[in-house]
Amino acid sequence: FAYWLQAQENGLEEQPRAHYYLMGACGEEGAPGNEWRTGRDWPPPATETPLYLRAGGVHSWEAPEAHEPAHQYQHDPSDPVPTIGGNNLNLPAGPMDQRPIESRPDVLVFTSAPLEEPVEVTGKVRLRLFFSTSAKDADFMARLCDVYPDRRSLLILDQAARASYRNGNQQLQPVTPGVICELTIDLWSTSIIFNKGHRIRLVLSSSNSPRFETDAQAATQHIYHDVEHPSCLLLPLPGA
Question: Which secondary-structure segment (H or E) carries 6?
Fold first, then answer.
């Protein structure tokens, strides 16, 4: 009260302004993370580093250098991808295993190679996505997962975006079927260390029901990841 209401310089301005929990692997002795941290601001300093979607469902730190064929899937609103965990209020919540949905034909999965060293991700995570759709609009659901050596795919973040609001929620911009567009999905923030031997995974679909209400249009979705359309996760890596 003395600092904020009476303008007294009492050292409070030198104290940490952010307290956050750095998550780490569960059940792995000596795994980094699983500790409280403090900082002057949130998010802490980091470099937004792309992890690229590549052909064959690969996630790579290397950008595409040539043409790569697009991935595609059929979205059927009468058979939506079910919600499994996540940041829910009235549904089962938390970092649940996403493997039950990852083999569906209307779900795309991009997975990195096993990490040679632990990778810390602290701050805002975004997905830069180049797409086209056969419909007049499209929804895209992104899930960020931590894949353990035993193949569990545990949900870290999930979020959705609608193509017609790709330039902001206050500006409706129609989609032309078949035309490639760029969309950014804000997955919000996290703080986690993906341990050595783990893999980083993106799970992409056009439904996540009932967590998100979607535009009920059947469609063929194309996801592009070539040199001209470098779709990628943008991860905040400290010291990158």
Answer: helix 2-6
| 192: CB partners within 8 A, 6+ apart | 22, 23, 24, 33, 120, 121, 122, 146, 156
Q: What pTM was estimated for this model as a whole?
A: 0.93
pLDDT at 149 over 80: yes
Percent of the chain topping pLDDT 90:
85
Query: pLDDT-derived band of residue 240, with 50, 70 and 90 as boundaries?
Result: low
Place of tokens 């998550």: 23
Rounded Cα distance, 64 and 60, in Å: 9
Task: Determine the Cα angle at 211 with ends 126 and 132, to 5°.
Answer: 50
The pair phi, psi for residue 155, each rounded to 5°, is -70, 130
- Strand 139-147, strand 181-194: pairing: unpaired
> Is the link from the previous residue into 210 a cis peptide, with omega within 30 of 0?
yes
Measured CA distances, 53 to 64, 178, 213 (Å) = 9, 20, 26
Place of tokens 């302004």: 17
| Residue 204 contacts residue 110 (beta carbons within 8 Å) | yes
